[in-house]
Specification:
- Chain A: Belongs to the binding-protein-dependent transport system permease family. HisMQ subfamily.
- Chain A: It is found in: Cell inner membrane; Cell membrane.
- Chain A: InterPro entries: AA_ABC_transptr_permease_3TM (IPR010065), ArtM/GltK/GlnP/TcyL/YhdX-like (IPR043429), Ectoine_EhuD (IPR014341), MetI-like (IPR000515), MetI-like_sf (IPR035906).
- Chain A: It is a multi-pass membrane protein.
- Chain A: Keywords: Amino-acid transport, Cell membrane, Membrane, Transmembrane, Transmembrane helix, Transport.
- The complex is a heterodimer of chains A (223) and B (271).
- With 223 residues, chain A is an all-alpha fold.
- Chain A has a single domain, classed as MetI-like fold.
- Chain A contains eight helices and no strands.
- In chain A, helix 1 packs antiparallel against helix 6 and helix 5 packs antiparallel against helix 6.
- The N and C termini of chain A lie far apart (58 Å).
- The relative contact order of chain A is 0.15.
- By secondary structure, chain B is α/β, with parallel strands linked by helices.
- Chain B folds into two domains: 191 residues, Rossmann fold (3-Layer(aba) Sandwich), CATH 3.40.50; 66 residues, no CATH class.
- In chain B, the strands form three sheets. A six-stranded mixed sheet of chain B has the order 8-9-10-3-11-12, sandwiched between helices.
- In chain B, a hairpin with a 2-residue loop joins strand 6 and strand 7.
- The chains are: A mainly alpha (223), B alpha/beta (271).
Chain lengths: 223, 271
């Protein structure tokens, strides 16, 4: 056995892998959408004056961050049905990965929200704004730019973690590469292609995030 | 527990002051910042608070803006309790709703301006009227432009704060506060963070307000000359209470208390 790359096989499997890439992108996008919204809820819940709520949410975030994603995926998919929650691999996968990343994103938001100075809150009070108005009009818009770099990191992170969904049978890129391998007994080409595809998406995405960050700052008139 | 029955549910009679601090105490832990403060500010009066740092003078403004809670006593604005509200014939601590209702009468300018950096000067001024008062954008724009004109900032109305000097930012902040049409304006060391050469542009705006508008104002400043020029009354704070107060000429020209004399001569030497 030596290094033996087959180009005709490569071209043969490429369309199938590209099709699976679309599923990977959908999984990453859907998971991220859940994480972005839920993460904000988790971050804001830790800023309420209700001590008990703050405590429970804080512990929840720590729990999620301290346990492996793959365990959470298995848990939702296999343990869920024992409690009568029966969901498809896709639904379970999206919930697990969305929940996992919402914990990380809540920390990013928390940092962003804390970076807005006390004086801004005082100005909101002096203008008699409600807490809701203060958050939506003044505090969150200023918390976004410092949070963007972290948010971008986790967007790439969630994309790279989608292969874990293959363990519960979500037909994303990794799952498809495995299937090709076990059908043809050739693993070199499919796995190499998976790596190349991930690289080809991750690298430009990171660059795009940096450009987007500058754009948002300028748009908001911030330095 | 403090006996709240010693405080009236609201002030009655003639000559109700615009602001009344009644027996107000503020503590941070064991440290008493303000000790049973009694202070009235009449409608249209300009009162300046001076004193060494740590004497509690900024706390007076912050309590009135409801940025700080108080431990004892009651603050009244226009005859009605601000820090408390009536419930079953007795005063209880104010609810957020009561605070929002009462706070609309008070405006404040800060040492560090606290303009919203993601909004232009004009947007800063329009934010309160549109979001809080529910005014139409058109009307709010008109009002804001008039006020930016008043403070001499109309030409910079489309600039973000980061493009403005400290003096310009403070003038926008004054316009922003005025756009809410408060009855009481609070100025908390508004020139302390400014370069000496631009202090005049801010003090001139405040001077203008005193001359032409019937606003009740409470100011904390280190600009003694300015305070003497424009105030109706000066309160000298020391150690959490009013050591001496009176008309500017009397207090600056002929201070009665030893601490006042010491403070004023120290300030004179430094200035």
């Amino acid at each position: 056995m030596g290094f033996h790359w087959k180009w005709d096989f490569t071209w043969e499997i490429l369309p199938r892998l590209l099709e699976a890439t679309l599923n990977t992108l959908i999984a990453a996008g859907a998971g991220y959408a859940i994480a972005i919204v839920l993460g904000l809820v988790l971050a804001l819940a830790q800023r309420t004056p209700y001590r008990a709520l703050t405590f429970v949410v804080r512990e929840f975030v720590e729990f999620i961050r301290s346990t492996p994603l793959i365990l959470q995926i298995f848990f939702v998919f296999y343990v869920g049905p024992q409690f009568g929650v029966r969901m498809s691999p896709w639904t379970s996968g999206m919930i697990a990965i969305g929940l996992h990343y919402s914990a990380y994103l809540s920390e990013v938001y928390r940092g962003g929200l804390n970076s807005v100075g006390k004086g801004q809150w005082e100005a909101c009070t002096a203008l008699n704004m409600s807490p809701r108005q203060a958050y939506t009009r003044i505090i969150i818009p200023q918390a976004v730019p410092p949070a963007l770099a972290g948010m971008g990191n986790y967007l790439v992170g969630i994309f790279k973690d989608t292969p874990m969904l293959s363990v519960i049978g979500v037909a994303e890129l990794m799952h498809t590469a495995n299937a090709i391998g076990s059908e043809s007994y050739r693993f070199l080409e499919p796995y190499t292609l998976v790596g190349v595809i991930f690289l080809a998406i991750s690298l430009p995405a990171a660059g795009f995030i940096r450009v987007f960050e500058t754009y948002v700052r300028r748009k908001l008139g911030l330095k | 527990m403090e006996d709240m029955s010693q405080y009236p549910l609201e002030l009655t009679g003639d000559n109700i002051p615009m602001v009344r601090f009644m027996n107000v105490t503020k503590r941070y832990g064991k440290l008493t910042v303000l000790d049973r403060l009694d202070l009235d500010v009449a409608t249209g009066e300009m009162v300046t608070v001076i004193g060494p740092s740590g004497s509690g003078k900024t706390t007076v403004l912050r309590m009135l803006m409801t940025l700080e809670t108080i431990n004892e006593g009651v603050i009244y604005v226009d005859g009605k309790p601000l820090t408390h509200m009536e419930k079953n014939g007795a005063l209880v601590p104010a609810s957020p709703k009561h605070l929002r209702m009462m706070r609309s009468q008070i405006g404040m300018c800060f040492q560090h301006f606290n303009l919203f950096p993601h909004m232009t000067a004009l947007e800063n001024c329009m934010e309160g009227p549109v979001q809080v008062l529910g005014m139409s954008k058109q009307e709010a724009r008109k009002r804001s432009e008039d006020l930016l004109d008043l403070v001499g900032m109309i030409e910079k109305k489309d600039q973000h704060p980061s493009r403005l000097s400290g003096g310009q930012q403070q003038r926008v902040a004054i316009a922003r506060a005025l756009a809410m049409r408060p009855k009481v304006m609070l100025f908390d060391e508004v020139t302390s963070a400014l370069d000496p050469e631009v202090i005049g542009e801010v003090t001139n705006v405040i001077r203008d307000l005193v001359d032409k508008h019937n606003l009740t104002m409470l100011m904390v400043t280190h600009q003694m000359g300015f305070a003497k020029d424009i105030s109706d009354r000066i309160c000298f704070f020391f150690d959490g209470s009013i050591e001496e107060q009176g008309a500017p000429d009397a207090l600056f020209g002929n201070p009665q208390r030893e601490r006042t004399q010491q403070f004023l001569s120290a300030v004179k030497e430094a200035g």
